[in-house]
Design goal:
heterodimer, A: 564 residues, Cation-dependent Mannose-6-phosphate Receptor, Chain A, 8-stranded mixed sheet, 12 strands, B: 953 residues, alpha+beta, TIM Barrel, Immunoglobulin-like, 10-stranded mixed sheet, 49 strands, 18% helix, MRH_dom (chain A), LDL_receptor-like_sf (chain A), signal (chain A), PRKCSH_N (chain A)
């Protein structure tokens, strides 16, 4: 069907397309040129049965179910799975829920690099210079927009930046080499330290053994003296002891009584406070978003959760009552029995004392009395009656020598554990992050300063005060696919596999999980924290440049951790 | 967590808001009603019109009502005015003489005004009040006066004198009755007498009366730790309004619950409480409740088969409305089924009694007449009807730019991104947080590249702090609301201690206007628009989260009198500011408001406030938005996704599918919720949300046309069944499906979890096609049609007989579609006919008021498909604006005829336009597999603004 002259006039804007771009219709890329070279008619690329007159190409209406008759207009842009579905006989799905066979409007961008512009952007009144520096996608001048050809300028700038970027990348790779050797040197140092430590430990172990043997010898010798001394010593001190003990127990009982009162008092107060807080939690209005209130509610919830899971008291009221009850023949310590035991062997009685205690008290006293005593001493209720043991100077010296040797040994072992552990710790490919250990980078972003400490932690600090918030502690290294726009300044993750350092287990978020940070790395000349975003509530993404993320000359596939 | 729904079932702190029995005047009037009901026929209303006082001139009747106030026969005088308007409305106004003449004393040395508030009309009424000089008394005797008025004098008001009653009739039949049940009540002024020592015996008679009555709620009234000093004592007004034979009443937003209002006096399925109108910041509001919300429109419509009537209660004070539906007693001799009468009882705390009566008879007559009185919906900024992306909060200018880029990258169109509270420096409005928003101009310009806009939150509370010029000026110029002691009122809101601008004060408006100038509010651009939140006003430490009623506004009116108008006056001041940002620049503002009143529709859009990410809130949004439409404020929407909480993916995509049918389409989220921009949903769900948003965008020309209709005659933008089909009784209570404007597009969004099919009620005999597949649906009038609705499907039908415009190229924003060609979709009726309209203007200026628009009428009959000027204008002499000139290069691309009659089964057609004729290809697809026959005609190539015709003969 040929249009008459008036239609040609109406559609002049579209048909002059043919002349404008040489022999090819507007928007056709070299890739698809062959489909548009027939001089008589146009055949839809994937619908060979549909043949159109040449005037129907780029006439602003979509005729081919694959969109191929409108390479230079937006008319077929609605052939797209994201658009509301409409019947489209002849398309793969018989609906518009299919893909346009053409990738986009081809901007030749002479003087720069040719590119496809999405059909949606054609003649929408916006100059999309980042894709189409020659401005040809706005040939319709919708709403009066005119996009001048800026390819000369943009191409030049692009080449300049690209060269700069290349140079930067080369320098970055050199830096990376330096870092690698630094990292290897650091690893070597750790390894040699480990070796040194192993030697030290062996030597120390031998020495310790020797000292232990010596100590045992001296001790055995001395023990006999002590035993003799005991026999000549006391005989009738038990009565005194019983008297003292009885008074002491009374005193302790009184004190315990007071402590119980104090505790009950405190318990009432806690209950009162908990009631207030529960009411507070139920009735506050979270819409007011008062950080202080939110923090308080959160803290109370944590407290409540902890309390509900905490094990119940290991001492019951009945236990305490029984301790507080007066000692009688049937309850507590039967003092009378002790007082009647005149000259019996003190030692026997001492060893038997447990037999006189109520069964639960035996273990209870053993486990609690020490604690209570310490507490009482610390609170000034009990004098520190501890007397140093009697030990001969000789034994003491021997023992101390053993102890010192043991301490040394333990310290060395700890060092070894640390250094050895460090060797098996994750430091990235070729251990490269050793070179960044203990270093941090930060960036100002809005109200906050964000900080990344390599393989340690991430945090944010408000410029308004409020202190640091931990955004995660280093956990592991992963790899993920990045899909960002390449930027000529190089400060972008770009596209492809990127190292992602996972920092987990940061500070708890209000009403949310613990904060965590994914630190995405891309190649750059120096360590720089480019940007931080909150990809979802309390999950942060840091985009970071570092030479450590540069691709080595021979591309290495990421693999397990130890690549040494 | 407490404030996430579902977790603990927590909702609004109901006890923070008054029930009727906690609001003294409501309690008294309800008891008055109970008392009247208990006395039945022995009850006699103590209000009588003095026969000799009646005068009638130029469509206005004046008289005096006497109220007998004690057994001795003492009376109080109440001037009555009944005015008849050319628009067919009647207005009944009753004032109180003693207060009118200021012959009262106020308690607590109050400086408040003594009169009953009578200035609501100043803010609300914009037209339709020309007196009907043809109205005339047709009968008068000692018992009653009959007045004929309205179109062809078909309306009649019968005013009975003893007791005072009015019966409004149309064609001889009663439709609206005032004081039919004797609940008319105006609490006359009386002094507080402190017992037991009456002051020197003065006014002894009144003391006696006062002692007989229960005074417990007359004076100082406490609630929730706040005491209202009530310096004027009891002053409420009440009136029963009956709609004989009417079973359904609609309107009086804003409430949750069904569109067809429920009874409020208890009983199975009924509410226990009256509907309340007292604009409030209700935190986590509950569903299916008569509780008050953020805005109020005291306009009620009663509907029955073939007739609609309405009343507009012009009062800005706290108001309660009781509704009872009673079956009329059966006449044993009558064969007809008993009719239901709806009786309503209106109670306001103060002010004059001022009621408009609208006698219909169609829903369209009502919305149009009501619009004549209170104004029609403003023509929107074009970008405002696209998709809005909002969150509390986008945290920095970088964040905003990033979201902007991501929307493009994921090919999701949007037009406006929003900044909530946190963009400000320390919650001082008109400032920017200096670190996070260091470069607002750069941000604004990036948005402008694609014709997009930025909306900033500006609230009426001004932080009280040193070094903040807005605060110091507000105080030094004395433009803030005063407290009861008449000094500047301090309260708490977002910024902490704050003062509230008093936008009733013309000087405050003048000052406020200045704050929006580009030179003053640095960082704003032409694409900056405004969001007015918290304008009820919300006061965190105030009674019921608002201002004390004894606060004092401009000219000493008490807050009590003007409360419900507060949001409107604030939005009005902002509107004034937006149109005077720069000399010589006159562009349509876009202002979203949370609080509103009758008339707010002239100023911008509203949304339903802080809803929740829950299925039941999604479901409730549709009746709420429909109710706004029939109540004159159709530019309405609910937060897509739900404000509080985190929506599951299926809920969120269903909400996008529903939101695409809200006139105001905005996604919003609370600060504690997870990020949920549509591109974050994951490929499958993102694609579904994108398709829903794109559906909205392809239909923008149809939506804009619907907005135009609302602007022209008040027609709702989305329409409930009773409105489009007022004679189909089965549709009167349906509020979960809707028509989009006059397009014949019938949508029933899915609002339930795991629901993959739905039943659409079919209102007529016309043919219906599936929007997406062109399948002819097997429908039957009055029956339900089951349609499938997988997660990616939206139940959407095309009613036969309509033509609507589309723009099919997916673009990044509405602005970038401005000069795209059109697709016309013709949905042929059973008879093979169709008609429809397109209205388009520059979407930005007020040039349309000078005729700079295109308004086409399309029609299909057996012989031709035509486009003609819808208003029959001759535009040849019109000097065309730049926009109208550019529109010359905008064409009809193709025409899709669904259900195409056989005449379309051909290779091509000839089109004629602008004196030329040319052939156009037709691809005809015969009916097959349940699909209707359809024809794709194109490229048409006719200019959209020109007449054209395609002859089929």
């Amino acid at each position: 069907m040929r249009p008459n002259s008036s239609l040609a006039l109406l559609n002049a804007i579209y048909s002059f397309t043919l002349a404008a771009a040489g022999s090819l219709p507007r928007g056709v890329s070299p890739e698809f040129a062959s489909h548009y070279q027939n001089k008589d008619q146009f055949t839809c690329i994937t619908n060979a049965a549909i043949k159109l007159s040449l005037s129907q190409v780029n006439d602003g209406t979509c005729d081919c179910p694959d969109g191929s008759d409108e390479p230079g207009t937006a008319a077929c842009a609605s052939i797209d799975p994201l658009s509301p579905e409409q019947p489209l006989p002849g398309s793969a799905s018989s609906t518009t829920n299919t893909s346009n066979v053409l990738p986009g409007f081809w901007c030749e961008n002479k003087g720069h690099i040719g590119a496809y512009v999405p059909f949606s952007y054609v003649n929408d009144g916006v100059c999309d210079y980042d894709l189409c520096c020659d401005g040809t996608e706005e040939f319709g001048h919708k709403g009066g927009v005119k996009c001048a050809n800026k390819c000369a300028q943009i191409g030049k700038e692009h080449r300049r930046l690209a060269a700069e970027k290349r140079a930067k990348m080369e320098r970055a790779d050199k830096k990376r080499q330096t870092m690698l050797s630094e990292a290897q040197e650091l690893r070597r140092r750790v390894e040699s330290q480990v070796n040194d430590l192993k030697g030290d430990i062996a030597a120390l172990e031998a020495r310790k053994e020797e000292l232990v043997r010596k100590h045992q010898e001296i001790e055995t010798e001395e023990k006999s003296k002590v035993v003799r001394g005991e026999k000549t010593g006391s005989g009738g001190k038990l009565g005194v002891l019983v008297g003292l003990a009885k008074a002491r127990v009374e005193e302790l009982r009184d004190t315990l009584d007071k402590v119980v009162d104090q505790r009950d008092n405190l318990r009432t107060k806690v209950e009162e406070l908990e009631t207030i807080l529960r009411k507070f939690k139920e009735e506050y209005n979270p819409n007011f978003n008062d950080e202080g209130v939110k923090a308080a509610v959160k803290a109370f919830e944590d407290y409540a959760a902890r309390e509900s899971t905490a094990s119940s008291e290991d001492i019951t009221e009945a236990d305490i009552d029984s301790v507080l009850a007066e000692d009688t023949e049937t309850n507590g310590v039967n003092w009378k029995e002790f007082e009647e035991l005149k000259q019996a062997g003190d030692t026997d009685i001492l060893y038997n004392i447990e037999a006189y205690l109520p069964p639960f008290l035996r273990s209870f006293i053993q486990s609690k009395l020490d604690g209570l005593r310490v507490w009482l001493i610390q609170n000034g209720m009990l004098a520190d009656n501890h007397e140093p043991g009697t030990e001969s100077a000789l034994v003491k010296a021997a023992r101390e020598a053993v102890e010192a040797a043991e301490r040394d040994l333990n310290n060395k072992r700890k060092d070894l554990e640390r250094e050895g552990g460090d060797l098996s710790k994750e430091y990235g490919p070729s251990d490269i992050f050793r070179a960044l250990k203990d270093k941090c980078v930060s960036v100002d972003s809005g109200e906050y300063t964000y900080e990344l400490c390599w393989l340690s932690k991430t945090s944010q600090k408000s410029k308004k005060g409020h202190g640091h918030t931990g955004m995660g502690n280093f956990n592991r290294i992963d790899w993920e696919e990045a899909d960002d726009v390449e930027r000529l300044d190089g400060r972008s993750l770009g596209k492809g596999k990127r190292m992602v350092l996972r920092y987990d287990d940061g500070q708890q978020c209000w009403n949310g999980p613990k904060r965590r940070t994914d630190v995405w790395l891309a190649c750059a000349e120096t360590e720089e924290l480019w940007r931080v975003s909150e990809s979802e509530k309390c999950v942060y993404k840091m985009e970071v440049g570092t030479p450590a993320a540069c691709e080595p000359a021979e591309k290495k596939e990421p693999s397990g951790k130890d690549e040494l | 967590m407490g404030h996430f729904p579902g977790a603990s079932g927590l909702a609004v702190k109901e006890h923070d808001f008054k029930k009727c029995h906690q609001s003294g005047f409501c309690k008294r009037n309800r008891e008055y009603a109970d008392n009247a009901a208990a006395q039945k026929s022995t009850w006699s209303s103590p209000y009588n019109v003095v026969h000799d006082s009646i005068s009638f001139n130029d469509g206005q009747l004046q008289a005096v009502i006497l109220k007998t106030i004690n057994s001795e026969g003492a009376t109080e005088r109440f001037p009555l005015t009944v005015t008849f308007h050319k628009s067919g409305t009647a207005r009944v106004t009753v004032d109180e003489e003693k207060r009118q003449k200021k012959e009262i004393t106020l308690r607590h040395d109050s400086q408040a005004r003594k009169e009953r508030y009578n200035e609501a009309e100043k803010w609300v009424i914009v037209g339709g009040v020309d007196k009907d000089e043809d109205a005339k008394i047709s009968h008068q005797d000692k018992d009653q006066v009959n007045i004929n008025y309205g179109p062809d004098s078909k309306f009649e008001a019968v005013i009975r004198l003893s007791p005072f009653e009015v019966d409004f009739r149309r064609d001889g039949e009663s439709h609206v009755k005032f004081n039919d049940h004797g609940l008319f009540n105006i609490e006359h002024w009386r002094p507080k007498v402190d017992n037991p020592a009456p002051k020197e015996g003065e006014e002894a008679a009144q003391v006696e009366v006062a002692q007989k009555e229960d005074e417990s709620t007359w004076w100082d009234e406490a609630f929730g730790g706040n005491t209202d000093s009530k310096p004027r004592g009891p002053e409420s007004i009440g009136l029963d309004i009956s709609f004989p034979g009417y079973e359904h009443v609609y309107g009086i937003p804003e409430h949750t619950g069904p569109m067809s209002l429920k009874q409020t006096r208890g009983g199975d399925g009924n509410f226990e409480e009256p509907y309340r109108l007292y604009n409030s910041d209700v935190f986590e509001y509950i569903l299916d409740s008569p509780m008050t919300l953020y805005g109020s429109i005291p306009f009620m419509q009663a509907h029955r088969k073939g007739s609609s009537v309405g009343v507009f209660w012009l009062n800005a004070a706290e108001t309660w409305v009781d509704i009872i539906k009673a079956k009329d007693s059966i006449n044993p001799l009558s064969l007809s089924t008993p009719k239901t009468t709806t009786r309503t009882h209106w109670i306001s705390e103060s002010g004059v009694l001022d009621v408009f009566v609208l006698l219909g008879p169609t829903p369209k007559d009502l919305t149009s007449t009501y619009g004549e009185l209170t104004g029609y919906s403003a023509m929107p900024q074009e970008l405002a009807i696209g998709y809005h992306q909002c969150r509390w909060n986008y945290i920095s200018d970088d964040d905003v730019k990033d979201v902007d880029r991501k929307m493009d990258r994921f090919k999701i169109p949007y037009d406006v991104i929003w900044l909530d509270l946190e963009y400000t420096d320390d919650r001082k409005y008109f400032t920017w947080e200096p670190h996070s928003f260091a470069d607002p101009i750069g941000m604004g310009k990036q948005l402008q590249e694609h014709g997009r806009g930025l909306v900033l939150l500006i609230d009426p509370h001004i932080k009280k702090v040193d070094g903040y010029s807005q605060s110091s000026e507000l105080v030094s110029k004395d433009l803030a609301v005063h407290n009861k002691d008449n000094s500047i009122y301090d309260g708490w809101c977002w910024p902490g201690n704050s003062n509230w601008i008093d936008c009733f004060n013309p000087k405050a408006i003048e000052w406020w206007k200045g704050l929006f100038k580009y030179d003053t509010f640095k960082g704003t651009l032409e694409n900056t628009f405004i969001w007015n939140d918290m304008s009820e006003p919300s006061v965190f430490n105030g009674p019921e989260t608002t201002m004390p009623k004894d606060n004092i506004h401009y000219e000493n009116w008490e807050h009590r009198d003007v409360h419900n108008l507060n949001g409107l006056t604030f939005q009005n001041a902002t509107f004034q500011g937006m149109v005077t940002r720069k000399k010589g620049e006159l562009r349509r503002p876009f202002i979203l408001t949370r609080s509103f009143y009758a008339g707010s529709q002239r100023l911008g859009a509203m949304w339903t406030g802080d809803n929740q990410a829950a299925w039941d809130h999604l479901e409730a949004s549709i009746p709420m938005v429909l109710n706004q439409g029939i109540s004159g404020f159709p530019f309405a929407g609910a937060d897509v996704g739900g404000f509080f909480g985190n929506p599951e993916k299926d809920l969120l995509v269903r909400w996008y599918q529903t939101g695409a049918f809200y006139p105001f389409f905005r996604a919003h989220a609370h600060i504690d919720s997870r990020r949920r921009e549509p591109y974050l949903l994951g490929e499958e769900h993102t694609a579904i949300a994108t398709a829903a948003i794109r559906l909205r965008y392809t239909l923008l020309p149809a939506w804009y046309t619907a907005f135009y209709e609302a602007n022209k005659d008040g027609s709702p933008i989305i329409r409930p069944m009773y409105w489009t089909h007022p004679t189909e009784e089965a549709g009167f209570a349906i509020d979960d499906q809707l028509f989009v404007g006059s397009t014949g597009l019938l949508a029933k969004p899915i609002t339930k979890q795991d629901q993959f099919s739905t039943d659409i009620w079919i209102p007529d005999e016309e043919v219906y096609y599936d929007y997406f597949t062109y399948e002819t649906k097997k429908t039957q009038k009055g029956k339900h049609l089951t349609v499938s609705a997988s997660l990616s499907q939206i139940p959407l039908l095309m009613r036969g007989g309509h033509i609507f415009p589309r723009r099919d190229i997916p673009r990044r924003s509405a602005a970038s579609m401005k000069y795209d060609d059109y697709t016309l979709v013709v949905s042929a009726s059973k008879a093979g006919t169709a008609e429809g309209e397109l209205y388009v203007d520059d979407g930005d200026s007020f040039d349309f008021e000078q005729g700079q628009y295109i308004h086409r009428r399309f029609s299909l009959d057996q012989s031709a498909l035509r486009s003609t000027d819808a208003e029959g204008r001759d535009t040849a002499s019109l000097k065309q604006s730049k926009w109208l000139q550019a529109m010359k290069e905008v064409y009809v691309d193709k025409i899709i005829v669904v259900g195409a009659p056989a005449a379309w089964s051909r290779e091509g057609v000839q089109i004629t336009s602008e004196g030329r004729s040319w052939p156009v290809k037709v691809q005809y697809h015969p009916a097959a597999n349940g699909k209707a026959a359809f024809a794709v005609v194109g490229r048409v190539g006719a200019r959209i603004g020109e007449d054209w015709s395609i002859e089929l003969a």
